[in-house]
Amino acid sequence: MTSRPEGTQLPVVLLSHRGPVSFGRDEEGRRTASRGAGGLVTALTGLMSDLPDAVWVCAASSEEDAAVAAEHDGDAVEVALEPEPRLLDQDGEDGSGVRLRLVEVDQRAHDDFYTVIANPLLWFLQHGMYGLALAPVLTKREHAAWNDGYVAVNRLFADAVVSEVQARGGRALVMLHDYHFYLVARKVREQCPEAVVSFFLHIPWPGPDAWRVLPPAWREAVLDGLLGNDVVAFHTEGFARNFLLTCQELLGLPVDLEAMTVRVGDRVVAARHYPISIDVAAMRELAASPEVAEHADALRDAFCGEGRQLVLRVDRTDPSKNIVRGFEAFATLLEDHPELVGRVSFLALLQPSRQDVPEYADYLAEIGAIVARVNAAHAAEGDAPIDLRLVEDQALAVAAYTVCDVLMVNALADGMNLVAKEAVVVNTRESVLALSENTGAHQELGPFAVTLHPFDIQQQADALHEALTMGRDLRRARRQAAARVVEENDIAKWLSAQLNDLGVHFAAERVRPPGPA
Ligand code: ADQ
Q: What is the Cα–Cα distance from 380 to 384, expressed in whole angstroms?
């Protein structure tokens, strides 16, 4: 549980696109509730359960979510997350629930918001995935999706946040999450001037030129929306600096790169960085469970015999994760070092992602094609070197973390990358982390990793070879050092650092512009 730091005495209104619980129906037509996965939901749930006056605003992501919202006239509902997620009576049975406001969004507006603007356009732009010669192409369709999708959906969520803040007397700590909601803070500030408004971005913020891909009116709306916050927070200092430089370059605003602030009229907005992390204790508890142990035994039998080594990757099938180049690098490794054929396997546990976005569907097909090519070229006595499994299976992923010799993370760009942090705290074979220099995690774990350059296949192949041939003592020292960094900077610290800063700097009074008061 995350305790509330002193000073943050305001009620919390949290906004994220996905919420902690989603409802459905089982075969007999009974209502079911399932819990959202991931460290972020766990951490924020801890915070929200501690605060009786808090509310979590999120999208109704299923028909049943919308039905639950409609039964309560769109008001917040009380849900319990432990031991099993379920809907509680309006005031909570034992006061331990989380208040959830499920916002129903018109399907068409949501498609435009989500599958035309947020993923792909904003995601691609912010991960540097456009080649620009042929994409993106902004037509009437995208303009309509911006206005009727992104802008309209942001307005809808801003209205929900505003009504929750007003229900708390206009004074609240508003915590907004991620690139889906760039426009919300401005509207909250206009209507709730007493609120303290903060935003956390989970993905990279590129430099000013990247944003010129968006029409001026759109990029100015994004920046203007964000400048409605008191604090805009990122995973790394580099992203925070890029944000300030973007405000300077595209809006002509004065920025202070020492204080990490930007001045907007008579207000000062702070850019901060808080590297997100994992719940180390929960990850280790899971790693020690019988289900994980059973998977680990099977993986050891399959991949970890005498003289054999296992390279692992665990990812969503997102083009930003650079999966295709990763397999090309593995093929180059086997060509350059034929003695490794039959002795090194590559297990890829890939969760199909965003298949309603054409670029993602194409990318998944490309992954299948390259695996078939590499396996055909390098099979040893019928044994394929790459084992590709399209699964979302947390227990299997954690079991694979425990037994791998090398974890490959070669993302083109990644806000943080939690897979790297998860693996280093549970591995039992002194694995080597092969980590892209373009991940937020590289800031913390780079010194203990073999660094990958995501566009350079040869360099990645050489780095994999270095990892596979590294001496035991060095492997052990590096993995232990990396695990210590994650232990000392876990998810609780990520959250309490933000709340402390908000409490200290903003609960009583917002940051004033420099100069005479
Ligand atoms: P993601 O892009 O989703 O997150 P990441 O941080 O690696 O990337 O988190 C993925 C999570 O999904 C991990 O917890 C991992 O264990 C799990 N996962 C992935 N593939 C899986 C599979 N096949 N089976 C089971 N579990 C799987 C975004 C940003 C990141 C940032 C996080 C948090 O893109 O940069 O670190 O948000 O801010």
A: 7
